[in-house]
Amino acid sequence: MAMIRFDHVTLELKGRRILDDISFETAGGDIVGIAGPSGAGKSSLLRLMNGLRSPSAGTISYQDHPLDQYEPARLRREVGYVLQKPYLFAGTVRDNLEYAYQVWRQKPDAPEIEAYLARVNLPVAILDKSKNEMSGGEQQRVALVRSLLAKPQVLLLDEVTASLDEANTLLLEELIRTEWSARSLTVLFISHQPAQLRRLARTVLVLEAGRLGYFGPVDDFSQQPGGMTHE
Predict the structure, then answer these.
(1) In terms of DSSP bridges, do strands 57-62 and 2-13 run parallel, antiparallel, or are they unpaired?
(2) 229 lies in some domain
């Protein structure tokens, strides 16, 4: 069963074609690295997967059912999305992280929250801070933890390590690998870093001017001329 399938998907916004006739499918439990130049349509692709945008043509399926048949609240519980510019709710970090339990009507698990914070190199004291008291990198890590605490089946990541140093980048990559392995999580992540694609992806999807340039194993892609030189 395909976890996500695009069938001849086109997206037009304000008269401009952002994505053009995109078709691919990814199996559950895959880690897909999305590459391509700036403006190629990578973020728009993720927004379509999460139901934040609707295609102008073509169909998108999630677990072999049309995406537009899912209740939006259910879809966004199961398909987590961490934006390139982290979005945190008003209130404290604690409020943001406890929200992940509220969507499933569960009691917050303080030890679990603290364990996730430790895994992304954040102190427990950060729970009482607001977003205005944190750096961009700290906000990004909090947003990722919030998404993981909601236990999604699919995790969409839009350049979540762009504002992090190398040590914290590797830390987040390890967390993603661990979650993927433990829960058969399906991950699709945008990256401009060829080295990160090699370290983390099993499959690579390349967009070029809104069209699908490559979709296949990372090893095959890296052997192509210029395969690991995309932005």
Answers:
(1) antiparallel
(2) no
Coil/strand/helix, residue 137: helix
Residues 6+ apart with CB under 8 A from 72: 51
User: In Å, what is the CA distance from 147 to each residue of 7, 12, 88, 176, 214?
Assistant: 27, 29, 11, 12, 28
Domain-embedded: residue 30 = yes
pLDDT at res. 224? 61
Question: Percentage of the chain surpassing pLDDT 70?
Answer: 96
How many CA atoms does the CB half-sphere of 217 hold within 13 Å?
3
CATH of the domain at 170: 3.40.50.300
Q: Is residue 75 part of a domain?
A: yes
Residue 113 lies inside a defined structural domain of this protein: yes
The number of distinct structural domains making up the chain is 1
User: Between these two residues, 227 and 196, which has the higher pLDDT value?
Assistant: 196
Inform me whether the pLDDT recorded for 1 exceeds 80: no
Is pLDDT above 90 for 6? yes
| E strand spans, the chain | 2-13, 16-27, 31-35, 57-62, 65-66, 79-82, 154-158, 186-190, 203-208, 211-217
Residue 184: domain span: 2-222
